[in-house]
């Protein structure tokens, strides 16, 4: 399980140090892909397998299903931790998420999100200013 928010840097080689609390869950490797809202998603291999099984059940006849599958699957890449707990984020994914040097690594239960720190701050400010409205909408989902 991933929870918490950590500030980290991406070095000139595109390496990101994974927070120490997350590393033990990623020892078997992980998958990084385009996320939603302008971030990257990192999944354990088992969580990734679960996601692709659900995506493979989507109807090919629906354009939104095809496009979402492309977003998540076509850009995905397997990554592994080095001895210092770092992963290399491919340039095309760093470009997608507009990641430069300063990033936020956020644990969201079954995945890690990697955000540009300025974009994260904007996203958090927006969420916090609308938290009551968001909570009301979640009632429909049983939350």
What does this 3D model show about the protein?
Strand 3 (30-34) and strand 4 form a beta hairpin. Strands 1-7-8-4-3-5 form a 6-stranded antiparallel beta sheet. With 143 residues, it is an alpha+beta fold. The mean pLDDT is 94. It has one domain (2-116): Transcriptional regulator MraZ domain (Chemotaxis protein chec, 3-Layer(aba) Sandwich). It contains 6 helices and 8 strands; from the N terminus they run ββαββααββαββαα.
What are its keywords?
143 residues; alpha+beta; Chemotaxis protein chec; 6-stranded antiparallel β-sheet
- Beta percentage is 25-35%
CATH-level-2 architecture: 3-Layer(aba) Sandwich
Helix content: 25-40%
Spans where pLDDT lies below 50 across 5 or more residues: none
What's the name of the CATH homologous superfamily?
Transcriptional regulator MraZ domain
Question: Can you count the beta strands?
Answer: 8
How many domains comprise the coordinates?
1
CATH top level is Alpha Beta
Largest sheet: 6 strands, antiparallel
End-to-end Cα distance, whole Å, is 19 Å
Strand order of the largest sheet: 1-7-8-4-3-5
Overall 3D geometry?
globular
SS content category: alpha+beta
Rounded mean pLDDT score: 94
Supply Rg: 16 Å
User: Counting H and I runs of at least 4 residues, what is the number of helices?
Assistant: 6
CATH topology: Chemotaxis protein chec
- Elements, N to C (H/E): EEHEEHHEEHEEHH
